[in-house]
């Protein structure tokens, strides 16, 4: 049977990681995979995670199953973190949550729910978007559409074109949006623009599906959740997929959650029953360990304060690097404007290099970024910023 299968190309980001590992040049720079790195280039375990993990292990008396919807206390703690503790959807019982294996698992759970409720719906993603959004949505059998989002030549969002495209969509279609720290562009909508989307979504009967993988790494915990809180207050239905990989540094533990916001509680109960069945039919139950850690942190005033502090250090590092990078690029490439990098947020920016230039910077300067010229800002260090800026100048010549 398996002889029928031809080899498929590697996932571009995972392929890039392997190529970087195999490169023996000491100057090599990894700006490929989207993980946070500190000033030493490491992705450490957060201190609050270490403490929470010890507490979890000390208290744990059994490894018996939890449940297909995961850890209920974690789900509730995440609801409070994402929507804010006093959001009116709680009193109205408008939100139901299911823990998923990472943000990817949560994204897929949401797409499966859409397929069950409305198999003819199309999910529209931004141009460009994070590459894995496409298989996560279409793997369910749902159709894929794209809306314009970013203008690479100017490094800005084309909001007028985006709205114009959304205005033409049929009712019942789904619009996948990045809540903050847009991947791969780093360009986020302003509060005013999010507010403008509310009547558009309502008028056109579109379902917003918000992906939040970087809460707290853009402007702050509260600020980054703004569009979710706004949409939940103003619109009848909403899907929110959340990842704890980056902001808690729990990547391999696979921690995520899907929040389903419905107009009435009874609809939410039905939706969750379908989600439980979906989970059961794929992996049965999500991994517990990482979610137990997050629950421990969010449930303890002191651990939560440490997390906020550690998160703000990560955010400050990224934002500081953005500013330093602009200065270095101005000096190395005076003919080209890279100032947009300082106005964006989160881990990523698109440099606007051609695929050919990206391949050259990899081959000739050992600098690794994805073919679309997305860079992970946190992959830079004070001691290689200059080398990186010179490398960009080298391929622009
Ligand atoms: C935009 C976006 N969404 C979701 C995820 C999900 O990450 P994970 O499944 O590792 O939690 C990522 C990770 O890179 C991401 O960039």
Task: Tell me about this structure.
The N and C termini lie far apart (51 Å). The mean pLDDT is 97. The strands form 4 sheets. The protein has a 7-stranded mixed β-sheet with strand order 2-10-9-8-7-3-4, with helices on both faces. It is globular. With 397 residues, the chain is of the alpha/beta class. It has helices at residues 12-22, 47-59, 72-83, 88-91, 102-117, 133-138, 159-166, 191-204, 221-224, 226-234, 265-282, 289-298, 301-332, 340-343, 355-365, 385-396, and strands spanning 29-30, 95-101, 122-127, 143-148, 150-151, 156-157, 174-178, 207-212, 238-243, 255-261, 348-350, 367-368, 374-376. The protein contains 16 helices and 13 strands. Helix 2 runs antiparallel to helix 13 and helix 8 runs parallel beside helix 10. The chain is 46% helix and 14% strand. Strand 5 and strand 6 form a beta hairpin. Bound molecules: pyridoxal-5'-phosphate.
Give the integer mean of the pLDDT values: 97
Specify the helix fraction band.
Answer: 40-55%
Biggest pleated sheet: 7 strands, mixed
SSE string: HEHHHEHEHEEEHEHEHHEEHHHHEHEEH
> Spatial order of the strands in the main sheet?
2-10-9-8-7-3-4
Report the bound ligands by name, code or SMILES.
pyridoxal-5'-phosphate
Q: Strand portion, in percent?
A: 5-15%
As residue ranges, the low-confidence spans are none
Instruction: Give Rg in angstroms.
Output: 21 Å
Structural class: alpha/beta
Q: How many strand units?
A: 13
End-to-end Cα distance: 51 Å
Principal-axis shape equals: globular
Number of helices: 16
